[in-house]
Fold this protein.
Amino acid sequence: MFQYDGTARDCLGPKPTAAPTLLTVPSGSWETHAHVIGSPPEFPFVQDRHYTPPAAPAQDFIAMLDAVGLDFGLAVQVSVHGTDNRLLLQTLRAHSTRLRGIAVIDGKTSDAELAALKDAGVVGVRILDIVGGGQGLASLESTAQRCAELGWHVQIGVKGENYPALLPRLMRLQVPFVMDHMGWCPAAAGLNNPDFQAVLHLMRNANCLIKLSGGFRLSAGVADWTDTIALAEALIQAAPDRVLWGSDWPHVGLYESGEVPTVGALLDLFARTVADAAMQKQILADNPTRFYGRPGSGT
């Protein structure tokens, strides 16, 4: 899993990728967790960041989608840009028929800024309590209130150890929420881990979705990250109509080349997890289109 050692080290960029070898990507499929990253000084980095990434511009994001056969993408505001959503706005406006977005806001974000974000294709706000640059759990309820006014949802990025205590607050939210990275529960802790059981409880009982993403961060170093398959299977069994897939491109916060996955390999991991073609289509295409709307359609 992602580990912070107290310094903002230069991390690696993404590897070139190609189409998966084990999966025929269904038409209308989505990448629901990726980031675009700018370069200072035009797009400055926050002081309290946990890593310093190379640029990952919109054109590279679109090229990645094309290389692996994905039609749509969700651009999630990256932590190193904090609440400066300018690059996200530019990206969504330039690729309105391909992309939707998730912003990061705080109490200083104006109603006019929120309106501009919504007009560009933003559909939610991320709460991130793992790395510097995010808005943490203290702002959960206030962020959810602003999302309710806009018809948005809240995206939750917290480590699995937070979920047992967080569960009552999430159950009371008046907006849908989406959990990042399978709840950020380490594969080595297993299915009976109380943290993962809290995530499963939410999937069964709350107005939420979850992303089959970040498996390379949750794995205990097993080849092809196959030790995360059991987690993914349990989540799918709990609520197959509320599961999404994402690659976490450009895979920030990694420092050794052997740790950096390719999107094609992550889609092959998905194929190892979900063998049924109808279920593959449901998770990759039907579920995200229903939840995020079809980019460029006005819905």
